Amino acid sequence: MSGPQCCSNPPTLNPSAGAGHVEQLGGLSSYISGSPDSKLAVLLVSDVFGYEAPNLRKLADKVAATGFFVVVPDFFHGDPYVPENTHRPIPVWIKDHGTDKGFEAAKPVLEAIKSKGFSAVGAAGFCWGAKVVVELAKAELIQAAVLLHPSLVTVDDIKGVKAPIAILGAEIDQISPPELLKQFEEVLTARSEVDGYVKIFPKVAHGWTVRYDGEDEAAVKPAEEAHQNLLEWFAKYVK
Fold first, then answer.
1. What confidence category does residue 2 fall into, taking pLDDT thresholds of 50, 70 and 90?
2. Whole-number Cα distances in Å, 10 to 49, 80, 182
3. What pairs with residue 124 in β-bridges?
4. What confidence score (pLDDT) does residue 5 get?
5. Distance between CA atoms of residues 11 and 73, nearest Å
6. What is the pLDDT of residue 3?
7. N or C: lower Cβ tally within 10 Å for the chain?
């Protein structure tokens, strides 16, 4: 988690990015996109750079356009990881923002979503967020999960998952290398009671689904392919 890849290509945060709006939900400021009249919701759990990342909000809008009510909470309470701050490298920052805290903070958000009348919720997590989502899937708090270039996720986590899960990984990833992703795949293949798959994207690096340059077609294409896989998974299981 503390390797250089975790934090490469940091986004330029923008509090007004996206077509949605920010409101309080379950005790957290959250970027909201999509129709509140939908009966189906999707929770996106960010990487360490937080919920103001423009590409993440763009993805939220894309998911919302397919009919979901999308929530992207600020799990870091206005304190995302800042690479330029040499006083708080990742090992120091993460002490204040452990994934265990993210998991606990996600529960009231999910309760708030369900109290609005949403009958099914899927969740996708990026890097740091993938660990939060895998915990939600183990606790049966969501109907479907997507992990994108996960950090901190273990084989035991995958063994405990109780919701359909799609794992999208990168070929060039020191945090969840292909060897680990293949172990995840073996676990899922052996568990007939939970649907799931692992897909390893060639020639891309950790973070590729949200930390890409929109002007770089070679980077946009695999990101959009992953976004499409995410949408297909939620269309299949969040209903």
1. low
2. 7, 11, 28
3. 44, 146
4. 80
5. 17
6. 66
7. C
